[in-house]
Amino acid sequence: MNSKPAQEVAQQLGNIPQNNEKLQAEIQRLNRKSFIPLEQVQILHEWLEGKRQARQCCRILGESRTGKTIACDAYRLRHKPTQQPGKPPTVPVAYILVPPECSSKDLFRLIIEHLKYQMTKGTVAEIRERTRRVLKGCGVESLIIDEADRLKPNTFKDVRDIGEELEISVVLVGTDRLDAVIGRDEQVKRRFQAGHRFGKLSGEDFKRTVEIWERQILRLPVASNLSSKTMLKTLGEATGGYIGLLDMILREAAIRALKKGLQKVDLETLKEVAAEYK
Prior knowledge:
Strand content: 5-15%
Shape: elongated
Number of domains: 2
CATH class of the largest domain: Alpha Beta
CATH architecture of the largest domain: 3-Layer(aba) Sandwich
CATH superfamily of the largest domain: P-loop containing nucleotide triphosphate hydrolases
Order of helices and strands: HHHEHEHHEHEHHEHHHH
Number of helices: 13
Radius of gyration: 23 Å
């Protein structure tokens, strides 16, 4: 590649200005991922707890960027593993995120490695048996499988068998596509009949969430009044109620406002950022 034209452009424009220390510290703070326990997350956790205690398999459905992944992983973190000397760790809740086209062998490897065990070579049958021993030895009561619609069709049989044979709650998490996938096998479908819808935010829930984000995540020097009618309308149109998009837009708008020398997110800056997500 001939870089001479690019070098000429860079030379004409000069170096990109560096942020001062105070601004850079604020940007780093705003880039740190943090989790706010919203009401819908607390409801989900109560539902999952009921399924864990009853050892019932189930599924969680919701569109992308609704916060399912963070909510499920937060549930895992609320069940802290314990360990006594000379014994395997007790892990009440295990959580794995599966890759595309996930085979049974891939699934078993993820489970074994999540529970801090070494993956061993062997046939699928041997690895399957090792996975069951590890799950049982660690006292796993709930196994959450995120992006479950990525599982290969034959893998669902192994997932079903884990729940049945170990008598644990296996939780499948995914979009509506998950229902179409598990619907191909009547036995799998029946096993995961119970479902919870993790939806988009709307109305007062959306407004309350925006207020929480401004107060607990953005924490700018001056109130931006993001829950005002015009601000809320802009955010609603850009996000469609998806909490993931809301988080991205608000953080970026806050950073952009600070770089402009502002102490809050103004409507103009919010519209600039929101327009890029439509």
